[in-house]
Fold this protein.
Amino acid sequence: MNAISDRFPRAEATASQGKVILVGAGPGAPDLLTQRAVRVLENADIVFADGLVNDDLQSLLRDGAIWVDAAKRVGGKTKSQQDTIDEMIGAAQAGKSVVRLKGGDISLFARGGEEISGLQRAGIEVELIPGVTAASAAAASAAFSLTHRDITSAVTFVTGHNVREELPDLSPVDGGSQTVVVYMGIGTASDLVSALTEKGYKPSTPVAVVERASLPEERVLYGTLRTLPHVLTSQSVESPALIVVGNVVSTSRGWWRTEALAPVAQTAHDAHLAHG
Ligand code: SAH
């Protein structure tokens, strides 16, 4: 036990029979894992990791513990969500200390909700350990506040597409003043630009794209709502990447510097409009 858990004993989550601990692994950098998550991983018998989890975390496991790549393709197709839930239920019922490790925070996207309710329906006790979500990591990388109080008092997290592969409900962002953070939005960015424009966002609204936030290969790119589709294709942005739309982006330390590099023809003009 380390000094911090001595002082905060209630923060001592432990794995136990019949229980699954869902752990947010953060955005990728191993040292953004919480201390509680580290403790739980060190004590696990079996860990089900999703695709965004950093493989280096395997080194935390004790000898004999099993690391299951739950995103792995088996026989040419990816394992279904239900297969993973069933495997976790089986392991918990067999008395194993089971940990489910997912990127970012468990409570945001990536089907965390389905797993929580699937496990609970089977009578499995569920415990959640929060993680640093990609939005926080992206804002940290570009050094701006998602809710800079001179600019906006609200931020909305949306997915690029909902469960029916449609654009998400954007009614909360009516008016165009609040920050919008788009998860899983690379493929649907053009549709999103149109939808946000209809909601009142000016084409000149600043946008940041953060690819692989917190990892050594991280890239932070800037543009505006109008140039976003071009930024994504011309810079070959790949998942995982996050799109942040809103005037808060103009407070980022890289905003003007990037504009000077002018990777996108319209950026300087748009930025001028954004500030004008
Ligand atoms: N639960 C996760 C989100 C899972 S959805 C969280 O809280 O962060 C998966 C999406 O998250 C990706 O498509 C991408 O949009 C975003 N994402 C996850 N990790 C990221 C990273 N390191 N950098 C940028 N975006 C990331």
